[in-house]
Amino acid sequence: MEFSDSELALRFRKRARRALLAGLAALNALPAERKKSVSKLTVEVVHEALSVAVLRFVVLALGRARGLFTDEPSFALGRLFVAQHPLLDVRPTVAGGELRWLFPDALSAAESAFRAELEVGLASDGIDFGQCGAELVGNLYELLLGEGVLRGERGLLELASGTKRKQTGTFFTPRALTEVVVSRALEPLERLRNRLPGL
Asked: Which residues, listed in sequence order, are joined to residue 150 by a DSSP beta bridge?
């Protein structure tokens, strides 16, 4: 199914927002003794870790649909995969060519929702990751910056519209520019893959 850029952005935003909400719900539902360590984290750390988890799902799905990221070394050193706070770091791994996700205990209750939204849900929406434009990642990043996390009256974590996107000057990058940047960024990896048949 063919989608316009705005239709894709809307579908990804809806699914990403649901995944973020599931992450916050998992953190809010932790038993009191485990919630203490999470309550010491800033809302910015929580927002960043959950946003990075969403982006990891999407970037790996886009790359794997193009025959990339077939093993962990092919993505593990990328900036997106730098470790987040240990309580919140959702890590991808590849075993036997299969992508697997390692959710920390604090977010384990959100794993099924992340998969339901970002893997099964997007596929059921008719999203073909192999046909998605490279600018989708930048657009999703911008949308995630448009969200924020705050502590409500009872100390519960909530999702709210954020201002970081405007403060940092982060805005949607046109497709033509994004394609050039992504193409140039992936060229060394593709050359390496072509030279080494097993990669």
From this structure: 158
